[in-house]
Amino acid sequence: MKGPLFYAKILLFGEYGIIKDSKGLAIPYNSYQGALKKAAILTEEVKKSNKKLQNFYEYLATSNQELVSLRLQDLKADLDEGMYFDSSIPQGYGVGSSGALVASIYDKYANDKITVLENLTREKLLKLKQIFSFMESYFHGKSSGLDPLNSYLSLPILINSKDNLEPTGIPSQKEGKGAVFLLDSEMVGETEPMVTIFMNKMKNEGFRKMLNEDFAKYTDACIDDFLGGNVKSLFGNVKQLSKVVLENFKPMIPQTFHNVWQKGIDSNDYYLKLCGSGGGGYILGFTEDYIKTKNILKDYKLELVYRF
């Protein structure tokens, strides 16, 4: 048995903002993927994954089945036969490892599943997001459902607000000098503690004001620029967003990267932003000259996501 592949995702813009109902843009990231498989030989790795899936099954089996009807007996039988999730997606890196897992379980075991092949109305997208939010909350305590949705559909998704999503097209990549890249912090980040910090910050009126005004303004502008292919304007807005994030989201940025982050803003060579909830994992970078930036950041591991 070998299930279909589900890809990692990158939330290009909108981290934290989407919790508070502002815009976001998520794209599939095909460099990493995962699939459900069965193993004849149970290695330690396979056993660990199987155990994790068994725990997930327990959660699904004891949860409300009204939102989604799953063939739980089939899932249990497959798990007893050594099924595991074979994934190259790094965990705790902000690229949707649990999202791909949730998408694969829904794809294989859901009754009346909504598929990519049908006409994806807003209602269907919201229903999927709701289902995935419930399923993925097992892993994060609170989930928007967006990671599994992105992984399941394998399409870029524009989040206009909590109740308004649409698949979108992104400009095709060019062979230019500019790029979006991932910078590896070489630290694992955990979503739940970061979201808790964020929720505590939300109690502060000044922080809420910043989020509703500066953060949302620059995030929305970046999304409009990116989708419209306005590269020059995009870099101006990403710079402003990078500043806002450094000033207001310091706990989510690993300490060792505060200077690297500031250096990009000061030199205009590159701009960094959070990738997912932060606290470790990947940091997302934007540069107008990828080769130059690779040289400047030669002590770090970089991965190319998109070319301008």
From TrEMBL:
<dbReference type="InterPro" id="IPR036554">
    <property type="entry name" value="GHMP_kinase_C_sf"/>
</dbReference>
<dbReference type="InterPro" id="IPR001174">
    <property type="entry name" value="HddA/FKP"/>
</dbReference>
<dbReference type="GO" id="GO:0005524">
    <property type="term" value="F:ATP binding"/>
</dbReference>
<dbReference type="InterPro" id="IPR020568">
    <property type="entry name" value="Ribosomal_Su5_D2-typ_SF"/>
</dbReference>
<dbReference type="InterPro" id="IPR014721">
    <property type="entry name" value="Ribsml_uS5_D2-typ_fold_subgr"/>
</dbReference>
<keyword id="KW-0418">Kinase</keyword>
<protein>
    <submittedName>
        <fullName>Mevalonate kinase</fullName>
    </submittedName>
</protein>
<keyword id="KW-0808">Transferase</keyword>
<dbReference type="GO" id="GO:0016301">
    <property type="term" value="F:kinase activity"/>
</dbReference>
